[in-house]
Specification:
single chain, Rossmann fold, Dihydrodipicolinate Reductase, domain 2, five-stranded parallel sheet, about 20% strand, globular
Length: about 400
């Protein structure tokens, strides 16, 4: 991190679009940027509801004159005064908002999914003048043990990569409240477009972990999807087999109708020499197995750990688990480093941990292929980057104008 003339570390100035105090995602982002003190949240348009907008500014300690009533005012008043805009609105609104921010010369940090289709990511790419900074918050990649696994892959610990299984089952679309009524998600989660919302919500995370851990591009997919839950108008369970570059085979499962799974994110990676398993419910631990029959539990205090015991991850000593917000904060620390490199032209290479438009487009092409495979009941090839083939719509809808 660079330092000011007084020797104090320079902090980057952020604005939020969306992310009000009544938003779980807003609180998560706010908490994450606080942990490492690399950012100051200085402005925002947090909600279209004036009372919630102003209350959010009060709780987030934003000056009243920097709490803006609408997105256009935020852009006109804050361009040149902030280092990045964090877009925390529903996915259907992202493309228009991200394009407008980039065209205004503002760097963008977007919640996943970046867009609703790969075609929309190309519209966003066209708005990136001079390679403007754009990153997507795939926060699960911030877990130290997942970064350790990635390093082990790069060092060849597993030998030839053969299989990776990534699953993200949840239960919210089958759960009931205490009074016996279904738990009801936000309205935008109950509308499917060309890519089903469950894929935009969970599938993008599953793809990001495939990409982050293996750096292998998906090539071909065979998938099936169902609606098992309380909302039959949308798909809520997806299973896919994916053939990736270099002979890697991947299976994916994600959905919202697996009772008992609050957020059952799990990764299993198998190679010719060894394998490893990691579960989000026990994020500090990975289970390692080799071809000699050894079984080993790895954590941040294990003698062979090279990445997860780095000082930046030692928020507290091993045995006192770091979790979801800490992983989010790790990713935000990476974003700060990347933004500062861009701001001061101190590095020309991309940050190894920051994922952006290219990864988002690859993921959306995979999710589009999953939907085609489901509809056509066959293996389908994943369109190469930049392809212009239209995607079959499952339900033709207009993107709703939803409150932030």
């Amino acid at each position: 991190m660079t330092r000011s003339s007084h020797g104090v570390p320079e902090k980057l100035h952020l604005a939020f679009l969306g992310g009000a105090v009544n938003s779980a995602v807003g609180r998560a982002h706010r908490d994450a940027i606080e942990l490492d003190q690399k950012f100051d949240l200085v402005a925002g348009c947090f909600s279209r509801h004036d009372d919630i907008n102003r209350e959010t500014a009060r709780q987030y300690r934003i000056l009243p004159e920097r709490c803006h009533a609408d997105f256009d005012t935020l852009l006109s008043k804050e361009a040149g005064n902030i280092d990045a805009l964090v877009v925390l609105t529903p996915t259907q609104q992202h493309t228009k908002q991200v394009v407008a921010a980039l065209e205004a010369g503002i760097s963008v940090i977007s919640e996943k999914a970046l867009a609703g289709s790969s075609a929309e990511t190309r519209k966003i790419d066209n708005a990136r003048n001079n390679g403007a900074f754009l990153a997507v918050t795939y926060n699960y990649t911030g877990y130290p043990m997942l970064r350790e696994i990635r390093s082990m892959v790069e060092q060849g610990v597993f030998g030839e990569l053969q299989q990776i299984h990534v699953e993200m089952p949840q239960e919210s679309f089958l759960r009931f409240r205490r009074d016996g009524t279904p738990m009801t998600p936000q309205d935008w989660r109950l509308r499917d477009g060309a890519v089903p919302t469950v894929s935009l919500d969970l599938g993008v995370h599953v793809h990001s972990l495939l990409h982050f851990l293996t750096q292998r591009e998906p090539k071909e997919v065979c998938a099936t999807s169902q609606s098992f839950g309380n909302f039959p108008q949308v798909l809520d369970n997806v299973q896919a087999l994916v053939r990736c570059a270099g002979g890697l085979h991947c299976s994916m499962w994600y959905g919202k109708t697996a009772l008992g799974q609050r957020n059952g994110l799990r990764v299993r990676l198998y190679g010719s020499k060894a394998s490893i398993e990691w579960l989000q419910e026990t994020p500090e631990v990975a289970y390692f197995y080799d071809c000699n029959g050894r079984k080993q539990i790895l954590d941040r205090a294990s003698p062979d750990i090279m990445i997860a015991n780095d000082t930046r991850y030692e928020r507290f000593k091993a045995g006192h688990p770091s979790g979801f917000i800490e992983a989010f904060a790790n990713y935000y620390a990476d974003l700060a480093d990347a933004l500062l490199q861009r701001k001061h032209n101190t590095a020309s290479l991309p940050h190894p941990y920051v994922l952006g438009l290219a990864e988002a487009e690859e993921g959306l092409r995979l999710l589009e292929a999953i939907e085609r495979s489901r509809l056509e009941n066959r293996w389908v090839e994943i369109e190469p980057q930049g392809a212009r083939r239209p995607v079959t719509e499952r339900i033709e809808i207009q993107a709703p104008q939803l409150a932030l």
